[in-house]
Amino acid sequence: MKLSYFDRIKINSEEISSKYGFYKYPTRPYIFIYLKANKNKRYSLNPLQHQLYEDCQCAYKLLNYIGDSELPSDLDFKQLIEKVKNNEPLQITQDVTQTWDEIKQITLKYIEQTMKGSSAKNVRATINKVSADKPSFDWQAIINWLKKYHMIDQRGFLNNLDGLEQIRQAIKEQDGKEPDWLKRENLLEQRTLHNQSKGKKIRYLTNSDIGDIRGIPTRNEAEKYFDKIKNDFPLQTWCLVMMMNYGLRNHELHHIEEITSEDEKSSTEFGWVYVAGEWRTKSKFEHWTFPIFPEWIKKYKLKEDFRMNQDLLRKKAKMNIVSAFDKTKTWTGEDPNDRGVCDNNSYLGNWITEQLRAKLPKFRCRIPDAKGVINKEDKPRDIKPYDLRHTWAITVATDKRWSGVSDGEAAMAMGHDLSTHIKHYQRWISSEAIRKKAMSNIKFKDYLD
By C-alpha distance, which of 170, 115, 32 is closest to 324? Predict the structure, then answer.
């Protein structure tokens, strides 16, 4: 039996990534499409007729163009049909009052008031790029623009999605409604696809394939280095020791409170450090952290010289604290509901990074491989300040003195959730160490016959 023109495009359409399919009524001349998730929702492609070859080809091109996007309006459908028949590019330019240059200015002004300076860096890059390219004000054109620069599983794709979301919010803030060509539900759908694609890509890769290898210095290696530099570089030594001993991020050195003293009245124990939450740091919540080597508090005068060193550090790299309600205004502390947001954490953290990179003697140690094993034959590599935070996590997970600390408690002390802790901070634990930790507290041989 010979297939009709319509039957052919219906079969071919199965290869199209679309949430719609073709349908025809025996008693009607026009081609219809239906929503695959709900076959009762059908839409006419009038004036396209299922008995005409050119109309069937036109319908197929339309479905391929629409893909998983929302259906355009009736007027836009007619525009698309005319474009197909005239072999014109399939883009709809919606009735948008702003130009891309105006949208750029609207969004930049919006993020100045709502985002930290360090957080807005990637958003600004997206705004500059999309406003320079000037894609049509049409969701499919935006999708094409996204895929022009990055694969869907790449970080750059997600960064551009974040930038587009800020554009959407800025326009909504000004106009009172989101733009038809940039809807939140469409952006969320692409974010979901990104997460799914990324998960499939990295699921079975070794650690060395999915990120930079971190240096994990031993206690002996660290003390040897700190003892060598402490007289010539006391501030830098204090910073690095604090980071490794308490698992701190670079910029958190500016925001932590002094090491606690023992106080029976308030049930405060000696040696803990308070870290502010997301209004001042990158941590998701405020938290307390403990020293992995309590002896270092006295050895390197961490508590004794705390105020002197933190004050000096704040002079070397000054904090920019802005209002949580309007980030174009300086925080005054007068409003009890306004905690103040630090707007330049990247700059603050970069101070100690540059010190270790360009001013201090090289801090080198051997790096574990993807299985967490250190090969003594490998050449030592340079340690970076953030490696010391990873070292804290590895030490808590493998050192016998911290065997009673659960992964959840360790994650809490670092200011992030458990999944982040396991995924990013325990990647360099050896299989042998994992076995020992698992078997350290669970004893069942006494129950055996």
Answer: 115
